[in-house]
Amino acid sequence: MYYIGIDLGGTNIAAGIVDDEGKIVKKASVKTGRTRKPDEIVEDMCRLVLDLMKDFGLTEKDIYSIGIGSPGSHDRENGIILYNNNLNFKNVNIKEAFQKYINVPIYLENDANCAAIAESVAGAAKGYEHSVTITIGTGIGGGVVINNKLFTGTNGQGGELGHTVIIIGGEDCTCGRKGCWEAYSAATALIRDTRRAAEKNPDSKIHELCGGNLDNIDAKTAFDAARLGDKTGIEIIDNYISIFAEALANMINIFQPDVIVIGGGVSKEGDNLLIPLREKMRGKTYGNEGLPTTHIVVAQMGNDAGIVGAAFIPKLN
Amino acid sequence: MYYIGIDLGGTNIAAGIVDDEGKIVKKASVKTGRTRKPDEIVEDMCRLVLDLMKDFGLTEKDIYSIGIGSPGSHDRENGIILYNNNLNFKNVNIKEAFQKYINVPIYLENDANCAAIAESVAGAAKGYEHSVTITIGTGIGGGVVINNKLFTGTNGQGGELGHTVIIIGGEDCTCGRKGCWEAYSAATALIRDTRRAAEKNPDSKIHELCGGNLDNIDAKTAFDAARLGDKTGIEIIDNYISIFAEALANMINIFQPDVIVIGGGVSKEGDNLLIPLREKMRGKTYGNEGLPTTHIVVAQMGNDAGIVGAAFIPKLN
Predict the structure, then answer these.
(1) Is the CATH number 3.40.50.150 carried by domain A128-299?
(2) Which numeric CATH code is attached to A2-117+304-316?
(3) Smallest Cβ distance to B146: which of A146, A161, A177?
(4) Which residues of chain A does B250 touch, with a Cβ-Cβ cutoff of 8 Å?
């Protein structure tokens, strides 16, 4: 039996056939065309799946389920995307649309939760019962796995870990609050802070790194500057990791998971991020001698997380 | 069948026989004598239980279990209090001690978790699958119930909700961090803020309310001053509730529980606390039209929470 996962993004629709071990045996993608009508986008998703199945020689009987991951809110039970701000989807019945073409169970889940599922079943949190996966991108996505089940609260909206305030009255957040973790640790926040620091420090190497145009700053720029020994770069990263450490310590005091997995672009820094992060977290978390403590690791599933996580939604249901 | 609950506090050991509905049918207490040796304290606990059983005419066969709630950390499986800073208990094997006298299952749990169990089984969260109980006292205790089970993370130390930083670099917390929720919303924090404001405002009614001696300020003083229309009192309470609202909104974005129960002394303010709190939380939590939202209520179990919660540990195990 195979699982099909679809990563419905604002730019691309990526779909894959996934085996029981979490290996993508066949994948394909098409442009989303985000301004199109929901009907057209959903039809493309169906077509993509049917083509993949045909190419790989599978019929309906070989497919356990189809899972779709997308940012936003879902009515999981009825297979409806309630809201997706990238696509202007509102109350789009995916299940109904798919079941015109193929009669297998359809699952929907938030993209941050799909990342958590992928890491839990096949990635950095494999073998652990309790994990928290943090995905750092435009925002901060959180996915919580408790007792090998995805935790989403009573209304399916839980685990919005990026929208917990860590500095009351702090930086503006996209959610309308001030001082959310997302407003300090998302890639966009790091870019904002890099730009601000560069503006204040005309001698910083950041200016060279972005070719003299601060619009070219990305989430890697400050890390690159720090690697070159640039004082401003070092300060930005030190502050970034200090705040990250406070937020992660909060998550440990709340969840005491076996492992926290950090994914998204910034996680590619690996030990450059993890070593100072673990150091700065020391003494901030509850726990007792002899009791297990939370491992802090980077994600392993990379770009496949979206497809594999969507495919494996039923595994953590 | 009956359940026995013991609330092991720094001042009193309170024990009770609890029926299946959460009603305490018989209770008694003795002074803890916190400076005594653990052995002596544990022996008093056993004697208290045996006396209660004798007085109520119960034998071992009538008792489903004995549960003990105390602040600190526990090895639940082996019935050992690992650490209790009120009593200087370290690695005290309660189970072994009790089983010299009575052969029934022994359960141990953190006191904040016992409060959550009591509210979940017999109090303000009864009938809800997902609840978060916040107990406001010297500190802020948190207890999380997910799918009608107490959630404590992989090492039993989870749910330390009071030790999540909401203002990085803020007020000193007893845990060693700065800016924890506890450092703003515990009764001790409210007393500190009331005192500070009184010192700055010699005309405030707070001075009369505490008989001219600021050492007499308690967690009710600022609420009382606000009720009298005192500007300083109103400001203290407004600030207190504003911060509380941010922290509770964080908890909703994380857990999306059916209900958040607020217990402890401050909760006796009832609607004086709840109405502005709900108002200040508006717009701060994730959720979608048509989906259930979290109820915010005050605790119902009062002083019985410790005994009933300890008695009912096995119900949420």
Answers:
(1) no
(2) 3.30.420.40
(3) A146
(4) 163-165
